[in-house]
C-alpha cells in the first residue's frame, strides 16, 4: 500500500437535487451533502467533519436528521438503495448497519423522516414502485411497506405527525395521503381529492397539515382532507386568515409563485413566498397568522444579468434548535442564513431583512479549471456557471469572484498570484487580481480555450485551441510559438522546471515534448488506442507521467517505462508531488487514488471517493501540504497530504507568502478623492457642529439670564410679601397681647369687686 495518501480537510460546494439538503446539528453546526459525502460544518470555527458514503454509492439522494439532533440518515443511490444512520455524537459519525427495503429491488429513496421519538424511520422509494417503507431502525427491522402512489404521481415529501409516532403523511403531485401504522401494517386513513394540485411541500401544525402548491396556494388539511386555505387578509397585508373553501381554485394564492419549502416552529411557520424570499408567520389568535418578518436573498453586484442572485429558488428551510438562526439552501447550491435572535433589536425593527452567506458563495455548476500559485496561498477555479473564483486555502475563504457573460473552460494563476488567465467560450482573457475585483488586462482571439498554463517563471504562458498550442510572452503578449502536431484535441500541457520544455497530451493518444526556444519536438509517444486526459513531468523532470482511458504511463525518451492499469473507470486527472514520493489520479467516478512513486509493479494505492462526479482537475500546492481537486459536482476539495503516521509531508521548499495586492492608479485616485471628500465633509460637519453649539450656548445663556431675572423678581416679590406678612403677624400679635392684657385687667378688677362684696356680706 502507498505510504502517502490524501485526507479530506475542507470542501467548498453543496450538492443540489438532494432532498432536505440542509439541517442544523446544533446552534453553530449545519450538515449538508457535498461531493460524495456529508459535511458537518461549524460556521463559527470554520471546521468541517466528513461523513463518508458507501463504497458502491452512486450519490446521495436525501438527508434526514432526528428530532433530538443525534442521528443523521443518509440515503444513497445504488443497484440496491440503502439508508445509513450515523451517530453524530460520535467524533467520526459512527455508522449503523444500512437499512434496505428487504427483498424489494429499490434503486433510490427520494425522501425520509424520523419519528418524533427518533426510534422509527420512513423512506419513500422512487417510481414506478413508489413504495413507502417503515423501519424500527435501531433493530434494522422493516415494520411495514405500502404503495403510496401511482406511476404518474411522484411523491415530493413524507413526514410523521410530531405528536403521534404511528401517523404519517405523504404528499406530491396529485397526492395527499395520511397513513396509520396499526397491527403490523400501514393503513390509509383518508384520501384527499387533489388530483389537479401539485403539492411541493407540507408541514404539520398541531393536528393540521399546511401544504404549499406550485401555484403559490397554502392549503390546510384536517383529518386527511383539504378544508381551508391560508390567504392574505383584506384588512391588512401582514395578516393571513384561514378561509373555508368549498372548491379548490388553482389560480392565485398566498405566494406569487410556487411555495417550494415550508417549516413549522414554536410560534408559527416559515415558508417561501417567491424567488429568493422567505416569510415568517406567527399565530396571534384563532385562524389568524401575522407576517412578522420577510427575509430576502440580496442582489449581488458581482453576478451577471443572466442569473440574478435574488431570483434563486428556495429548496430547503431549517431552523437552529434554539430558533435563533434560520438557514436556507437554493437551487443553485448556495447556503444562506439570517439571525432570528430576540436580542438583535436592529433586525427586529426591520421587517425586511436580508440573508447572508452561511459559508461562502459556491460554484453552481461543473468546475472546469483549477490552478495554484507560488507566492500566495491562493487557488483559482472557473466553472460553467460563468464565474471565476479565487479561494484562500489557508483561511478557507473566498477572496474574489466575478461572474461573466460567457462560460469559462480553463484557468491559470500567475506564480505571483496577481494575475489570472481564463479561457472563455469567445476569447482568452488575461486579468488583474486587484484588491476587490477581477479586471481584464488583455484579450486574445482564442475561442473555447480548454487548457492554459503559465510557465514556472511566469514570463510565458501556453494556451490551447483545438489541436494547436499557442505560446505567448507575458511581458509583450507576443505569440512566439504555434506548436502543431496533434491530430486530436489537446487535453493538457505542462512546463519543465526551467521552462525550456513543454509537454502535451491529446485525445489522439499522442504525448509530445517540445523545446520552447525552437518550437521543435524533442520526443514523442503515440498510443492510438488510448485517449489521454492529463500529463505532467515527474518531480525530477526526467520522465513524463500521463493518464488516459484506464491506465497510468511513465514515458522517457519516446519509450514507455512503466504502466499501471486502473481497477475500474477511466482516469481523468493527474497530480505529481514535488517531493517525488506519490502521484495522485482522479477518475470518472469521483475517486482519488494515491499511487506510490516510483510506479510499483503491483497495484499499490490508496483509494477514496470524495467527489460525486468525474474529477476534472487536480493540483498540489507548492509546499506539498495540500491536494486540490475539482469535479463536475461543482465542489472544490482541499485535502491534506499525510504520510503513513498521519503527519504532513516534509518539504525542502521554503514558502514565503506575500501579502501585497494590486491596486490600480484610478482606484487609488478615486479612494484618495473619496477620502478628501469625506475629510472635507467631516470638517464641514465639525464647523456646523461648532456653530450649532455656539448658537445653543448663546440661546442657553439668554434663557438662563431671562430665567435668573424672572426668578430674582419672584424672589424679591416673595421677600416683600414675606415682610408684609411678618408685619401683619406682628400687628396681630401686638393686638392679641393688648387684648390679653385688657382681659386680664378686667378679670382682676372683677375678682376684686367680688371679694369686696363677700367682705361686706360677712360683716353684715
UniProtKB/TrEMBL annotation:
Region described as Disordered: spans on this chain: 729-764
Comp. bias intervals (Basic and acidic residues): 729-745
Residue span, EML-like second beta-propeller domain: 368-636
Ranges for the WD repeats: 360-401, 483-524
Gene: WDR65
Name under which the protein is recorded: WD repeat domain 65
Keyword terms: Repeat, WD repeat
Recorded superkingdom: Eukaryota
Alphabetical list of PROSITE patterns matching this protein: WD_REPEATS_2, WD_REPEATS_REGION
